[in-house]
Amino acid sequence: MRRKILSYGLSIIFITLISLFVSEQIQILNYKSVELIATDVSESDFLSREYFEELNSLYKRIKMKNDKWYVFDGSSHIAATAVITRMISDLENAPDTLINHENFHQYFIVFDKNIRKLDSITEQFHYFRNVLNSYGDAPEKLDEMIKLAAGGKWGLFSSKYHMYNYKGMDGAFNVKFISEDGRFEAVYNTGTGELVSDPVNMGTYNFAPGSINPIKYLMHNKYDKIPWKKWGNTREVAYHDIINFQSGYGSLRAKSNFKKVEEKIALIP
């Protein structure tokens, strides 16, 4: 019995030491990847075909450099972080280049693909969703969005997490639309007919669009919902403050309002 207990105890110690070693190595490798990003200067035009090939090469190069003998070496995480960091920097340096660019969609495809290689989302990456969502080109007026929804470019969805009463706004009249590809969101208040942009009810970008598919549902929870519950939509209002606001979700007014918008969309040929 004592031998079993001793053996079990030694196993726990061994596993703990290995975990600490791996964690330390990943931290060291992360510093190295930052150095690689800083010294690796792009030679391709932003958003060109060569640019995306360069990002792919960057990922492979950093991953290979950080591959170790143990299974959980974090090399994919490090390489993906490098690519995402590069893409954020490039977009911040040339924000207008993405607008109406022929490779507009490719930028988001590659960005999301690398986000979903991470073990978890950082605060920086989470808040960058607001920058990405601004490229959804959602109109300022609800009437214009209804026309787009009638054409299939956007869809009307549940606004459960966007119906809080905030600064005099009745959240029961908020409705949410999601773009055809599931990435971009836009919330409107039917009382004002305007796009809602406050930090409590605003629409946000989805790194992993939700779905009834179990795997996609879990991905959406991991990369979009959990970070939101940790940091809120912006630094201005925390999640625990958001959920303390009174919500109009489930009320008769909210249900009636949603149905009216749904009917308006259906009436457009």
Describe the structure in your own words.
By secondary structure, this protein is α+β, with helices and mostly antiparallel strands. It has 9 helices and 4 strands, in the order ααααααββββααα. The chain has helices at residues 2-39, 49-66, 75-93, 104-115, 123-133, 142-150, 214-231, 239-242, 252-267, and strands at residues 154-157, 174-179, 185-189, 194-195. Strands 1-2-3-4 form a 4-stranded antiparallel sheet. Helix 1 runs parallel beside helix 3 (75-93), helix 2 packs antiparallel against helix 3 and helix 6 crosses helix 9 (252-267). The chain is globular. Mean pLDDT is 87; it is low at 12-36.
Q: Are there runs of 5+ residues with pLDDT below 50, and where?
A: 12-36
Major β-sheet, in short? 4 strands, antiparallel
Strand order of the largest sheet: 1-2-3-4
> Which outline best applies?
globular
What is the string of helix and strand elements?
Answer: HHHHHHEEEEHHH
DSSP E strands, number: 4
- Please tally the helical runs, counting DSSP H or I stretches of 4 or more residues: 9
Oligomerization: single chain
User: What's the average pLDDT?
Assistant: 87
What is the secondary structure topology, with strand pairs?
Layout: H1 2-39, H2 49-66, H3 75-93, H4 104-115, H5 123-133, H6 142-150, E1 154-157, E2 174-179, E3 185-189, E4 194-195, H7 214-231, H8 239-242, H9 252-267
Antiparallel strand pairs: 1-2, 2-3, 3-4
Summarize the structure.
This protein is an alpha+beta fold and 269 residues long. It contains nine helices and four strands.
